Amino acid sequence: MTQVIYDGTFEGWLTAVFEIYEFKLQDIVFAKQEPATSLLFADTYFVVTDPEKAKRVSDGLKSKLSKEGFKRIYSTFLSETAQSEDLMFRFASYVFASEKNIEEDLSNTEVWGIRKAAQITRRESHRMKAFVRFKFTKDELYYAIIEPECDVLPVIENHFKSRYADQRWLIYDSKRKYGIYYDLEKVSTVELQFSDDVNSAKFLAEICDQEEAFFQNLWVQYFNNVNIESRKNTRLHLRHMPKRYWKNLTEKVANLKK
């Protein structure tokens, strides 16, 4: 067995696929950054990301898949499901070994697995588009904290750039410790560390505009007033808005503190 260690980027994974074929590596298991201790006695192969090699693999996959088919591979990578890179490699191997387009072969385990993993990312990205709650800071920046199940920032970037094109904003993924920042011209990836209690009154008072608390309270009142108690369906509500997201939703923070 060979552990293929790469840098954790999609481009790094594509480079790894190229070198697996180039050097005819067998019994592949992917790992990010460092060897897995559970495979201590496996052979180890370290990959250095190479944009040219990555492009060749990417172009090869795109030539044999539809645009949506290739997008599913990237969405699977972002899903961060267990052994997602291994699934992607088996799928890619099936693609390269076939003369015809295989993405509708749902009887194949890898094809079906890719579809299921991609759906996780798609569902989570839709939720984040709805659940992002911006706060306005003293230096006129709108910021939002999210903690999604999978890495959706690359997927939702264009949505927010288009919708809030006239505002500076930052969306920060507290689980993965990075964010995307829009400066009115372009979106950049940034790494920073937020306070552990980003919803505390002290933290908000330090960084938020003086009228932000007023608008937050207004939103909470609106939410409470449109909520018809007699038609309340907790099970349905939790299905559409799972409780794990509540701590970053303005209208739900008060409920968590009760």
Automatic annotation (TrEMBL):
Organism domain of life: Bacteria
Tell me where in this chain the DUF4130 domain is found: 83-251
Q: Which Pfam families match?
A: DUF4130
InterPro entries from the entry? DNA_repair_put, DUF4130
> Which protein, by its recorded name, is this?
DNA metabolism protein
What is the organism field in this record? Flavobacterium cupreum
Where is the organism placed in the taxonomic lineage, from the top? Bacteria, Pseudomonadati, Bacteroidota, Flavobacteriia, Flavobacteriales
